[in-house]
Amino acid sequence: MHDLSPIHKMKYLKEALTYLHDPATVAELQTFFGIRINPRRNSEAGSESCKNSEPDHGSCQEKKEDKQTRQNQILKEIGESNAEYSIGNKFWYYLFFISTSCGDEIFYASMIPFWFWNVDGAVGRRIVSIWMLSMYIGQCLKDVVQLPRPRCPPAARLLKTQVEEYGMPSTHALVAATVPATILFFTSHRYEYRVWVAFVIGILWCFMICLSRIYMGMHSILDVLGGISLAVLMLPILLPLVDWLDSFLLTHPSSPIVILVTSITMLILAPESATLVTKEDTTVIVGSFSGLQIGMWFLFAIGQIQGPPLEPPHTILWPSESQLLLMLLRTLFGLMLGFLAREIGKSLSIKFMKI
Hints:
Blueprint: H1 6-21, H2 23-32, E1 35-37, H3 39-49, H4 64-80, E2 85-87, H5 90-101, H6 105-118, H7 121-145, H8 171-187, E3 191-192, H9 195-215, H10 221-251, H11 255-269, H12 277-301, E4 314-315, H13 321-354
Parallel strand pairs: 3-4
Antiparallel strand pairs: 1-2
Helix pairs in contact: 5-9, 6-7, 6-13, 7-8, 7-10, 7-12, 8-9, 8-10, 11-12, 12-13
C-alpha cells in the first residue's frame, strides 16, 4: 500500500475538519436524540436567521452603540427561530439540559463556594485558579480563532445564551475536563478513596457536558474536540504551576498587589471582541478569582486559615444529620450573599472597564 502524499493527507485532513465543523453533522446528532427539525420553517427562515451563529464581527473601533444594536438584533433573530424544532424525546432533552447547566457560570458559582465551606479550602483555591485560567485562555482563543457556532439551520439551537460568542474552543468542554482533573490530581494523595471510581465519574461528567453542547446546537464536534485538546495541553503545565503559586498567593505580604496588577493586566491584554459579552464574561471570571484569592490571603493573615492537624492522606468523614443541616443552612445563606455581591461587583467591574 502506497503512502499518501502530503497533498492527499492535507486534503483528507481538511475534509475531516470540515465534517467535524459541519452544522449538518450537529443536526444529525440532534435528530438521533429525538429533536425534530422542521425543514420547511428552516427554509422560510433563510440565511438571514442563520446570522445568529455568525455575527458580523467588524472593526474593534466600532462604537459601543453599534455593538449593542447588533447584540439586540442577534437575540431578536434567536427568539424568532424557536419554532424551527420540536422535542421528540423528553428524556434526552432534560438529561442534556441538566448536563449543559453543569458547565454554566451559575453552577460553578455555586459549586466552588460549597467546596470551600464544606469540603477542602486548599483544594478549592487550586480549583479556582485552574477554572480562571481555563476560562480566560478559552475566551481569548475564541476571539483569536473567530470560528462561528453551528449554523441554524440546518442545526437547531435550543439555547439563547452565549450566542454572541464564537464557538472554538468550547469553554464548557475545556472546563469540564480541567476542573475534574484538578480535583482528582489534588485529592488523590490527600484523601483515602478509590481513585478509579473518581476517574470514571470525571470521564462521564466531561463526556455528558461535551455531548450536551452539541445536542443543544451550541457547538460543533470540532469545537468540543478543540476544548478537550486544549485541556490536555494545558493541564501538565497548569497543575504544577497553580500548586506552586498557591503558597505565594496565600502567604506573601505583597500577594494582593500582585493579584490586582496581574488581573488588570490580563483584562487589558484580552483580545477585543465585536460584542461586549466575551469581555464582560472575562471580567467577571478574572474578578471572581481576584476577590477570592485576596479574601483567602486576608483570612490567612488573621489566622483563620491553618494547615490540617494530621499529615495526609486523610480518611473521609461523612457528616451527621445535624452537620448536614448546618451545611445546608451555611450554603444557602452564603450563596444568597454571594449572588448579591456578584451582581454588585459585576456592575461595578463592567463600568470600570468601559471607562
